[in-house]
Amino acid sequence: MATKQVVGMANKGPSYGMSRQVQDKIDSKYDPELEQILVEWISRQCGSGVGRPEPGKMGFQAWLKDGCVLSELINSLFAGDKPVKKIQSSPMAFKQMEQISQFLNAAEKYGVTKTDMFQTVDLWEGKDLAAVQRTLSALGSLAITKDEGTYNGDPNWFFKKAQENKREFSDEQIKAGKNVIGLQMGSNKGASQEGMSYGRPRQIL
């Protein structure tokens, strides 16, 4: 029995160590400089009512954890109807998570892609605050790119996203393009065949 317990304990050790390593890697992606930019932007965007967090990751998490600041932020980016109808601070965990998920739904509606979206537990449980930063950065980039007059911050804080240039081509243009490609391929073919010396029998002098 004693041996089994020791083996069990030994097996538990590495798995805990691994999860600790994974968490450390996630934490290392958290950017303190980006935190400052995001805090500055959210404060400007939402006004003094949202206050400011204590510096550092834990302060950042505590500031956003109940979802109210995030909901104020997303609402400020919509010129017309506000997507989050009710913003109410609550000490209850499920209410805070509900408020966060309202923000996430609104952010998706605004245009943030699923790959840029954090999960509620990333923020609420502090599992991946770098992912929270990524979502907010994507939101800032979108606000600058859309240029709807709702963004209130320095335009250099976030990258402007490349917008799609959809071009319409007529059938004639498409056909002409195919002909050019065909000609190029033909000339390359000729050149490569003539230019290559291998494959021919060598002349022995």
Q: Provide the gyration radius in Å.
A: 28 Å
CATH classification, class level of one domain: Mainly Alpha
CATH architecture of one domain: Orthogonal Bundle
Strand residue content = under 5%
CATH topology of one domain, what is it called?
A: Actin-binding Protein, T-fimbrin, domain 1
Largest sheet: none
Measured between the Cα atoms of the first and last residue, the distance is 88 Å
Count of strand segments: 0
How do you describe this structure in short?
The chain has 205 residues and is mainly α. The chain has eight helices and no strands.
Task: Write a structural description.
The protein has 205 residues and is an all-alpha fold. It has a domain at 13-146: Actin-binding Protein, T-fimbrin, domain 1 (Orthogonal Bundle). Helix content is 61%, strand content 0%. The protein is globular.
Keywords for this entry:
single chain, 205 residues, mainly alpha, Actin-binding Protein, T-fimbrin, domain 1, disordered N terminus
Can you lay out the helices and strands and say which pair or pack?
Elements (H helix, E strand, L loop, with lengths): L1 H27 L3 H15 L10 H8 L3 H9 L16 H18 L9 H5 L4 H18 L24 H25 L10
Helix pairs in contact: 4-5
Organism: Amphiprion percula
InterPro entries: Calponin-like, Calponin_repeat, CH_dom, CH_dom_sf, SM22_calponin
Family: Belongs to the calponin family.
